[in-house]
Amino acid sequence: MHSILPHATSTVPAYDPQGHNTGINWSCERRNAGGLLSRWAFPSELAEQYNGAEEWAYRRLQAVSLEGNLFETARVSKVDVGLPNDLDWVRPDIMESWYSLSREDSTAQVHPYKFTMFMLQRTQESGAVNLVQGKVFKLNYSAKIINPSSYILKGDKIVVTVGPWTSHLLPTCPVSGFLAHSITITPSRPVSAYALVTEIMLAKGKHISPEIYARKEKADICGEGVKVVQVPDTADDVELC
Ligand SMILES: Cc1cc2nc3c(=O)[nH]c(=O)nc-3n(C[C@H](O)[C@H](O)[C@H](O)COP(=O)(O)OP(=O)(O)OC[C@H]3O[C@@H](n4cnc5c(N)ncnc54)[C@H](O)[C@@H]3O)c2cc1C
């Protein structure tokens, strides 16, 4: 496998649609991650070429680190900490300091679900990808091990991208599940394009560090990890409230 983005979407010079046969095993993705991108991770040309702004909510944004205090509020005002003028949707009375992590020329954002679905659709349109929906139960390293009751996908190179489930298929790979909670809110008015990394004091010795990703219509708030847990059997079993 050379790329999951064959033909028009491939940027791999060695990709040969005649010579390479690509298979994707796909299962459901329900999680809504932040979708924050650094310039090196994702060239803006792809967004320009495929109308990323419309297709996967691509937009430039600034990332800012904020330190706040809900324990002793109103000690400083927004003017005191000099927050950016357009960052007018955080409470200035609880902010103590901030600094810029990155500016719009080096940071962008996508809607993870829309982006991955768009890319999957493109690969299917290419006709060069064999998509199989379902759960992988086992990796066999020999062509001889065949269970006739199973669907077998053969490949000379296999890329395993099952995130926190990796150790289910590759037991020696030390990847484990870490429980965290995130919520999506619909603001009462549009919010400016910022990703916020925060450290907020709730009481003496008690801090929280939510990350806040403003989107065009929503904002995702991701809490920090709580504890190592056994990951549910599939992504569908991840608890949604
Ligand atoms: C709250 C939160 C915010 C984040 N924000 C950002 C961000 O702003 N920017 C950023 O770059 N990253 C962010 N991340 C990290 C990012 O989400 C992950 O790095 C990324 O999703 C990893 O992608 P993946 O495809 O490797 O794994 P995953 O996204 O975990 O996908 C694994 C997939 O494999 C499937 N699967 C599991 N087992 C099997 C099986 N046996 N057979 C078939 N399919 C299987 C699952 O159903 C799942 O769909 C964030 C993560 C979280 C939790």
Description of the structure:
The protein is an alpha+beta fold and 241 residues long. The chain folds into two domains: 1-60 and 107-159, no CATH class; 62-103 and 181-224, no CATH class. 13% of the residues lie in helices and 27% in strands. The protein has helices at 44-49, 52-55, 78-81, 112-125, 166-169; strands spanning 22-26, 36-38, 59-60, 62-69, 95-102, 107-109, 129-133, 177-179, 182-185, 194-203, 206-208, 211-214, 219-222, 227-229. Strand 12 (211-214) and strand 13 (219-222) form a beta hairpin. The protein is globular, with a radius of gyration of 22 Å. The two termini are 38 Å apart. The site of flavin-adenine dinucleotide has 21 residues, from loops. Flavin-adenine dinucleotide binds at residues 25, 27-29, 33-36, 135-136, 161-165, 169, 180, 182, 222, 234-235.
